[in-house]
Amino acid sequence: MKSKSILIVGGGTGGHISPGVALYEEFRAAGVDLFFLTGNKDARFSSLKDVAPDDLLYYRAPAFSRNIFKLPLFIFGFAAAVLKARLIIREKGVGAVIGMGGYVSAPALMAARIAGVPLYLCEQNTVPGRVTSFFARHAAAIFTTFESTRDYMKKDLHGRLVLVGNPIRKKVLSAPDRDSARKAFNLRHCKKVILAIGGSQGALTINELVLGLKAGYPGEFKDVGIIWSTGGLSYEKYKQAVQRTGDTGSLYLSPFIDEVGAAYMASDIAISRSGSGVMVELAAMGIPSILIPFPYAAMDHQDKNADEFVKAGASVKIANADAVPEKVYPVLSDILGNPTQLARMSARAREAAMPDAAAAVVKSVMANF
Questions:
Q1: 213 plus 256 within the same structural domain
Q2: Which DSSP state fits 186?
Q3: How far apart are CA 5 and CA 33, in angstroms?
Q4: Same domain, yes or no, for 149 and 298?
Q5: CATH number of the structural domain spanning residue 98
Q6: pLDDT-derived band at 13, boundaries 50, 70, 90
Q7: Roughly what angle, to the nearest 10 degrees, separates helices 71-91 and 106-115?
Q8: Buried-exposed string 55-68: b where 16+ CB fall within 10 A, e elsewhere
């Protein structure tokens, strides 16, 4: 008899895919047969390259629309996705489904429930997403990143919450030493290095901020390097904008950063959105951060995520509306110019990190598999 397998499902954003890939790696290391299911549109995410081609599955999962005229199309698309997921569960001998959140995971979780297959949920943010909220009562366990998530869940579900942190990919944790990392980005000569990242989709606010900092404070950034991930859609625009300034300076500009562990190791501080995925990676690597929450995130979860790290002393939060060079530069300059504060924030970040999250999830799931 063929042994049962596990199905990990997630997509829509890198914040749902990256921790799923981290779990995939950990289950694979434990010798578990498993598959990773994601949306057709998610093939663009570079982290999926770490999933073996034979283990990577796709389906068309529709996003929910409040437009009443689009509701019939959504219902039809959702039903088709559930049927596809149900077929996968049967053909692959799936014995457990782990949902990483996002609308992409909903049809597979529904298929698991219909098939009577145990389902597990991974909630990356402080405020549970809609998928977590909808399937919480049917989950064998809900793995959370923040203790405060308990405050947003009904008390009768508290027994299913397991605080483990957010799973982190192995390539993040297996970074080279700082000198080698800076050499990889041609920033070995810099006294300090800033990492600017806007998430898988890029972030207009952060991109404009970095461009403004370079243009407005060239002298102040003379000995400071910048590793700048623009996002794929904005790369050419900002590449040309930097070239027009006539002085690229100590800058590594890229749409995406594949060697993310090296980028973290090379950096002294990060400017970032406050999605849980990047936050826990920064924490695990002891990187202080200036967090600029995306103001339109569902249920304002990025703002609440940032508050967790501000309370821990690992980060400074700046509102999206205030993320302009003249307001950010004084904060950035003060931190970079204060070795004691940098070291303290780095230590607080490491204290907030839970780098063994993936192993904890695997252990919990396998105990009942």
A1: yes
A2: T
A3: 5
A4: no
A5: 3.40.50.2000
A6: confident
A7: 60
A8: bbbbbebbeeeeee
Q: Residues 59, 39: contact at Cβ < 8 Å? A: yes
Task: Quote the tokens at residue 32.
Answer: 């578990």
Q: To the nearest whole percent, how much of the chain has pLDDT over 70?
A: 98
Of 93, 90, 88, 85, nearest to 2 (Cα)?
Answer: 93
What the block records as the tokens of 350 is: 């490491």
Helix (H, G, I), strand (E, B) or coil at 73: helix
Contact 88, 35 (CB under 8 A): yes
Q: Domain of 238?
A: 172-352
Give the separation between CA 105 and CA 117, rounded to whole angstroms.
15
Within this chain, do residues 46 and 31 fall inside the same structural domain, yes or no?
yes
Q: Is there a contact between 160 and 139 (Cβ–Cβ < 8 Å)?
A: yes
Do 228 and 136 share a domain, yes or no?
no
Instruction: Specify the number of domains making up the chain.
Output: 2
Identify whether residues 232 and 257 lie together within a single domain.
yes
Q: Give the span between the Cα atoms of 15 and 305, in whole angstroms.
A: 13
pTM of the model: 0.90
pLDDT tens, position by position, 261-274: 999 999 999 999 99
Distance, CA of 349 to CA of 311 (rounded, Å): 11
By DSSP bridging, strand 224-229 and strand 5-9 are unpaired
Is there a single domain that holds both residue 12 and residue 121?
Answer: yes
**Phi/psi at 36 (5° precision):** -120, 120
Annotate 63-102 with DSSP letters as a single string. PP---GGGHHHHHHHHHHHHHHHHHHHHHTTEEEEEE-SS
Among 273, 269, 270, 221, residue whose Cα is nearest residue 245: 221
69/128 same-domain check: yes
d(CA 151, CA 282): 25
One domain, residues 271 and 342? yes
- What pLDDT digit, counting tens, does each position of 197-253 carry? 976 555 899 999 999 998 889 888 889 999 999 988 889 999 999 888 776 679 999
Sheet of strand 34-39: strand arrangement = 56-59, 34-39, 5-9, 94-99, 119-123, 139-144, 161-163
